[in-house]
Amino acid sequence: xxxxxxxxxxxxxxxxxxxxxxxxxxxxxxxxxxxxxxxxxxxxxxxxxxxxxxxxxxxxxxxxxxxxxxxxxxxxxxxxxxxxxxxxxxxxxxxxxxxxxxxxxxxxxxxxxxxxxxxxxxxxxxxxxxxxxxxxxxxxxxxxxxxxxxxxxxxxxxxxxxxxxxxxxxxxxxxxxxxxxxxxxxxxxxxxxxxxxxxxxxxxxxxxxxxxxxxxxxxxxxxxxxxxxxxxxxxxxxxxxxxxxxxxxxxxxxxxxxxxxxxxxxxxxxxxxxxxxxxxxxxxxxxxxxxxxxxxx
Length: 297
Prior knowledge:
single chain, alpha/beta, Rossmann fold, two-stranded antiparallel sheet
């Protein structure tokens, strides 16, 4: 039975997709062909999210051990075997499920300013034509949506309260098995962060990944028609997925996103209000991970 020996556990909308693709280039690293299996968050469950457009996420989640093992059967000589599911950090069940199955796993998380992360999560569903509310309205609707069973991408604020999430992993796995990086560091110096991760995983730290494709671009389409064709489900897009390899699809989508999307303003008043809510949690988090997070507040 082959299971991963490391996991990228989150946070969502904090560069996990880019990190997955960068690590996948390393010859000593094997990454699961499906990014975001979400296995440890939903093992043994019947998943049926109820928000608009949530069906794709519900259908993609791996919930059985056999199907999860299939993701790693092609691993051969790689010393680091991993996957990336950004909901693991947020999940109430993932930490204990991981510890039960792979207690020696190394865990990697990238943390982003929670107010910026919330807005990026909002823009993600806007980009895909799923969100009809403004950002502030979406924040007000969040608790009702959670109660109705909408998938975690809609949990704009709640995902960003990192302290208890981080503490649950530290309590189970300790500091030797966990690494917490900041999204800002990853953006400014991807090579430096990758080198640290290579060393943590015990693979060649001198390998240089191609980081020209930047992290998941979020924003609203400049052109509505092109936006629907590129980012929303449609027959043309479905046909293209059948013939274009996954890696190439990712690179094309990121390059198109950089050209077609514009990032609107979050609004200073809304951002300030969010940061006031997050501040006690941020102060707790910086004690847990030993990083100065005053720039976040």
